Amino acid sequence: SQQGEEDPQALSIQEGENATMNCSYKTSINNLQWYRQNSGRGLVHLILIRSNEREKHSGRLRVTLDTSKKSSSLLITASRAADTASYFCASGTYKYIFGTGTRLKVLA
Amino acid sequence: DAGVIQSPRHEVTEMGQEVTLRCKPISGHNSLFWYRQTMMRGLELLIYFNNNVPIDDSGMPEDRFSAKMPNASFSTLKIQPSEPRDSAVYFCASSSRRRGSSNQPQHFGDGTRLSIL
C-alpha cells in the first residue's frame, strides 16, 4: 500500500504566487521528507521534518506536519518559473515510500 | 561530489533480451535503493541494500529481476528475460544511514529510461 498520497495531482499558478501541496500517509513515521523532480531527472531532496516537529522552514519552503491527521503540507512562497517540477513526499522507517506526486507548473 | 551515477541513461532492447542497469553510489554512503517509476504506478521501491547486503527485496516484481551489490561502490539491477511491461525509468539512490535511523535524505541518480520492444 502506498504510504504517501499528494494532493492536488496537478497545480498551475502564476509566478509570484504561493503554491501549497498536501501529503497524507497511512502508518506511523519517524520523519517525512519532500523531494522535487524536474523532467527527465532524478529526485532531489528538499526538506526533512521529524515526527516530533510541527513546522520547518528552508528558504522559500515551509513544511508542516500533523501526526494526528497523518498529513503534511509543503508551501512554496513567491514561486518562480524554475519551481516547475513534480513534488513528492516520502515517509517510512528504514525504507521510504513515495507518494504519487504533485505536478506544479509556474507560469511566467 | 559526483553524485549517484547510473548507466546507461537510455536502453532500448527487444523482448526476451537481458538488461543490466548499473549504479555507482556516492562514496561513503552505506545504503542503496533501486526504484522503478512509471506513470501508472508512480515510484516503487524494488530493493534496498545496507552495507552491501540486501535487506528488503519485497518490491522486486518477479524472479526475472535480480540485484547485486558486490562492493560499496557498485550495484547492478538485471532483468532476464525482459518484457514490454518492464519499460520504465529505473532510479538508483544512496544515503548514509546509521543503524536504526531513517533520518538521512536519499540522493538519486538521473535514472535509466528502459524501453522493451
Describe the structure.
- The complex is a heterodimer of chains A (108) and B (117).
- Chain A is mostly beta strands and 108 residues long.
- Helices cover 0% and strands 59% of the residues of chain A.
- Chain A is built from no helices and 11 strands.
- In chain A, the strands form 2 sheets. In chain A, strands 2, 4, 5, 9, 10 and 11 form a 6-stranded mixed β-sheet that branches.
- In chain A, a hairpin with a 4-residue loop joins strand 7 and strand 8.
- Chain A is globular and about 40 Å long.
- The N and C termini of chain A lie far apart (38 Å).
- The mean pLDDT of chain A is 91.
- Chain B has 117 residues and is mostly beta strands.
- Chain B has strands spanning 5-7, 10-13, 19-24, 31-38, 42-50, 53-56, 65-71, 74-79, 88-95, 107-108, 112-116.
- In chain B, the strands form 2 sheets. In chain B, strands 2, 4, 5, 6, 9, 10 and 11 form a 7-stranded mixed β-sheet that branches.
- Chain B starts with a strand and ends with a strand.
- The interface between A and B is medium-sized, with 24 and 23 residues.
Give the helices and strands, then pairings.
The complex is a heterodimer of chains A (108) and B (117).
Chain A: E1 4-7, E2 10-14, E3 19-25, E4 31-37, E5 43-50, E6 55-58, E7 61-66, E8 71-76, E9 85-92, E10 96-98, E11 102-107
Parallel strand pairs in A: 2-11
Antiparallel strand pairs in A: 1-3, 3-8, 4-5, 4-9, 6-7, 7-8, 9-10, 9-11
Chain B: E1 5-7, E2 10-13, E3 19-24, E4 31-38, E5 42-50, E6 53-56, E7 65-71, E8 74-79, E9 88-95, E10 107-108, E11 112-116
Parallel strand pairs in B: 2-11
Antiparallel strand pairs in B: 1-3, 3-8, 4-5, 4-9, 5-6, 7-8, 9-10, 9-11
